[in-house]
Amino acid sequence: MAGRALLDGPDLATVLDRYLRAFPGVDPRAAVSMWSMYYFSALGIPSMLHWLELRRTLPSALADIQVSLAPATGLPQGFVLPHIGKVTPDIAIDRALSSLIEDHAAPLIERIVADHGLGARLLWSNLASYLTWIVHEVGRLTDPRLAEEGGEFLQCAVWPSGMKNPMAGLNRREDDGHGGFCTRRRVCCLRYMLPGIPGCGTSCPLPAGRP
């Protein structure tokens, strides 16, 4: 479907209803949060990778793309972009990812908050968690300097563009309780409320959700 359809009319509700059918009797907010985690992982990880590894900005504005969703579950299968993006090595990372943040995640999160009563911080944390993970992996496998760049972007309170960072402070480095360190969320994603869904492990902000 056209990406803009997720913002206009009943299409988003129809998509989420498909996913909610898998969890009858469960607080729908937990299922909607879980759906957003699938969505933001499929959307955010490639966007961050293309920038850090290739200096390529992707045209991911919700109004300009198409979204492929599984008919039975409503889970995202992919995104059809209008073109392959542009290599723009001289711009700052916040501008490189503005299409992802300002033109896709922000309006979608606003719509989900309005329709389903979830906190915006929870949804931004779902996106931030996947971006934090892939930034760490790029630093581990490619170049630590790239992880520094990505980490500063995620933690900076206000980006150079002047936009307030909605993900600032939502993930923090803490003692994992086993002699090491981990990245831990500040806001619970509610997945513990869903039967058959594994927990977050050491990243969970709730002590009961950690191994």
Describe the structure.
The protein is mostly helical and 211 residues long. It has helices spanning 11-20, 28-54, 93-96, 98-116, 120-141, 144-155; strands spanning 56-57, 66-69, 76-80, 86-87, 171-175, 181-185. It has one domain (3-167): Transferase(Phosphotransferase), domain 1 (Orthogonal Bundle), CATH 1.10.510. It contains six helices and six strands. A hairpin with a 6-residue loop joins strand 2 and strand 3 (76-80). Helix 5 runs antiparallel to helix 6 (144-155). The termini are far apart. It comes from Rhizobium halophytocola.
What descriptive keywords fit this protein?
two-stranded antiparallel ribbon, two-stranded antiparallel sheet, Transferase(Phosphotransferase), domain 1, 211 residues, mainly alpha, 6 strands
DSSP strand tally: 6
Strand fraction: 5-15%
Low-confidence stretches: none
Give the CA-CA distance, first to last residue.
40 Å
Strand arrangement within the widest β-sheet reads 1-4
Oligomer: single chain
Large-scale geometry? globular
Q: What name does CATH use for the topology? A: Transferase(Phosphotransferase), domain 1
Summing up helix and strand content along with how strands pair, one would put the structural category as: mainly alpha
CA radius of gyration: 17 Å
**Number of discrete helical segments:** 6
Percent in helix: 40-55%
Number of domains: 1
Question: What about the largest sheet?
Answer: 2 strands, antiparallel
